[in-house]
Write a structure and sequence with these properties.
Elements (H helix, E strand, L loop, with lengths): L5 E2 L2 H21 L5 E7 L3 H16 L3 E7 L5 H13 L5 E4 L9 H7 L11 H8 L8 H12 L8 E5 L6 H10 L3 E5 L6 H5 L4 E4 L17 E4 L12 H4 L5 E2 L6 H21 L1
Helix pairs in contact: 1-10, 2-10, 3-4, 6-7, 6-10
The structure holds NADP nicotinamide-adenine-dinucleotide phosphate.
């Protein structure tokens, strides 16, 4: 068991990112540009409502603008694409966030891929994923980038480490695996068909949990001294890792809440400011 323990405090990392944005937003304002994030919410899923509200509030607290577009549940794909096209063409909108998930009758992938790459501040387009995999410039998917930002803030090594990612979703598991691979980790991606999952987890120097199942990863599965990044956010503010049993075994671990979540939002703000800076050039 490791003697020193680091709680990877996402609120501290988030604050650090936000503070770095203040002078940049001020400089933009002096040039007559207010960074603006446009969020689209289709339907009335209460969790999505909360996420969209949190993102809007975070923008306003930093003096950025947030524009919210609420569309009815029966919006069809063509209707949603029209809205995205309009935002793509609007010079006052710098970032577009389409809240996932959209109602099942909508072609979500097509909707994501309609977002202009330069406004894809949430990193959801196929092109953005490809560029992420190739380590080319684009806005990374926010939660994966947040995970890397936490690791970097605490100066934890990645190169040569065995990183195990549980989950392979397009917005989280797959892109975070690419980011870790591009930083020279040896990466294993596990998913619902993986057999003997705890055996893989036992090999992880760095474990990323992106499963969506409360308290799923047990401390007994971990290699002593592992670095644990818990991206999970389940009902009741519970992560994907069983914090109580993982804490004694890990050398460093993100809590839930107060871990990956706040850094994800700060990353979204950072991307929107970057997009505004590019637009103002
Ligand atoms: P998702 O799309 O539901 O993907 C979950 C992944 O977990 C899938 O790849 C699935 O495998 C895998 N999985 C499910 N059951 C498993 C099992 N028993 N063993 C191994 N793998 C299993 O979820 P997501 O959107 O990636 O989100 C994951 C978690 O992160 C959720 O708790 C979500 O709330 C949270 N999240 C947090 C933030 C944040 O800002 N902190 C942002 C986004 C998401 P298959 O592919 O085989 O189905």
């Amino acid at each position: 068991m490791s003697s020193s323990k680091t709680i990877l405090d996402g609120r501290v990392v988030s604050q650090h990112i936000r503070e770095s944005l203040v002078p940049r937003i001020e400089a933009l304002r002096k040039r007559g540009c207010v960074p603006c994030l446009s969020t689209i919410l289709v339907g009335n899923d209460p969790a999505s409502e909360t996420y969209v509200r949190m993102k809007g509030n975070a923008c306003r607290r930093l003096g950025m603008e947030s524009q919210r577009i609420d569309l009815p549940n029966d919006t069809n794909t063509a209707g949603l694409l029209d809205v995205i096209d309009r935002l793509n063409a609007d010079p006052n909108v710098h970032g577009i966030l389409l809240q996932h998930p959209v109602p099942a009758h909508i072609d979500e992938r097509l909707a994501f891929d309609t977002i202009a790459l330069e406004k894809d501040v949430d990193g959801v387009t196929s092109l953005g994923f490809g560029r992420t995999a190739f380590d080319l410039p684009c806005y990374r998917s926010c939660t994966p980038e947040a995970i890397l930002s936490i690791i970097d803030y605490y100066e934890l090594p990645i190169e040569g480490k065995h990183a195990v990612v549980i989950g392979r979703s397009p917005i989280l598991g797959k892109p975070v695996a690419m980011l870790l691979l591009n930083r020279n980790a040896t990466v294993t991606i596990c998913h619902s068909r993986t057999q003997n999952l705890p055996d893989f987890v036992k090999q992880a120097d760095i474990l990323v949990a992106a499963v969506g199942k409360p308290n799923f990863v047990k401390g007994a599965w971990l290699k002593p001294g592992a670095v644990v990044l818990d991206a999970g956010y389940n009902e009741g503010n519970v992560g994907d890792c069983d914090y109580a049993s993982c804490l004694p075994v890990a050398s460093a671990i993100t809590p839930v809440p107060g871990g990956v979540g706040p850094v994800t939002i700060a990353t979204l703000l950072k991307h929107t400011v970057e997009a505004a800076e590019k637009a103002a050039q």
